[in-house]
UniProtKB/TrEMBL annotation:
This is tRNA (Adenosine(37)-N6)-threonylcarbamoyltransferase complex dimerization subunit type 1 TsaB. One of its GO terms (biological process) is tRNA threonylcarbamoyladenosine modification. Residues 35-136 form the Gcp-like domain. It comes from the Bacteria. PANTHER family: TRNA N6-ADENOSINE THREONYLCARBAMOYLTRANSFERASE (PTHR11735), TRNA THREONYLCARBAMOYLADENOSINE BIOSYNTHESIS PROTEIN TSAB (PTHR11735:SF11). One of its GO terms (molecular function) is tRNA N(6)-L-threonylcarbamoyladenine synthase activity. The gene is tsaB. Its EC number is 2.3.1.234. The lineage of its organism: Bacteria, Pseudomonadati, Pseudomonadota, Alphaproteobacteria, Rhodobacterales. Keywords: Acyltransferase, Transferase. Pfam families: TsaD (PF00814). It comes from Yoonia rhodophyticola. GO terms for cellular component: cytosol.
Amino acid sequence: MQPDVAVIAFDTSAAHCAAALLLGKEVITRVDEMAKGQAEHLIPMLEEMLTEGGVAWKDIDGIGVGTGPGNFTGIRIGISAARGLSLGLGKPAIGVSGFEARAFGSTPPLTAIIPAPRDKAYVQFFKADGEVSKPALMGQEFLPALVSPPAPVKLITAVAKIAAQKLDDKVERPAPLYVRSPDAAPPSDPAPVILA
């Protein structure tokens, strides 16, 4: 990682719009709680943060984005925005999973746990030898560990710092991390016939 990088990071995979602007060692964060409306809210929020930090879009070295798991629509909003900004600015977009953000700064072995619908949990194990398990949807046995989940500010700060560390790496463009199937499914009835 370069010493004075500028990275903007955001996550819309939960009921919030969370963003961090990393400027060297300084981090500006903002978390706006919202159940919906992230798509309209995200870019103006990022522009306000850039203004607060005294930098322009052209000054950004990279974009970090939370890839989930979490809300399907929210994940797609964040990743689409990151890919669009990356293309428009000619800067790398780096995806960071919620598991990586929770494990950031900790020494393995550890278990990263994210709340999931219906009293379940998304779980990933980080082993002492550096091996990382495949993310899984687990039952209620992991929920007691979520008594004090990490604050969104801590998580979005981790997304920005991880993205900054990966700036010099060759990374694939961000992709959603879905651990479970979506709740909605396409209709099973055939599409209506359109008569001309």
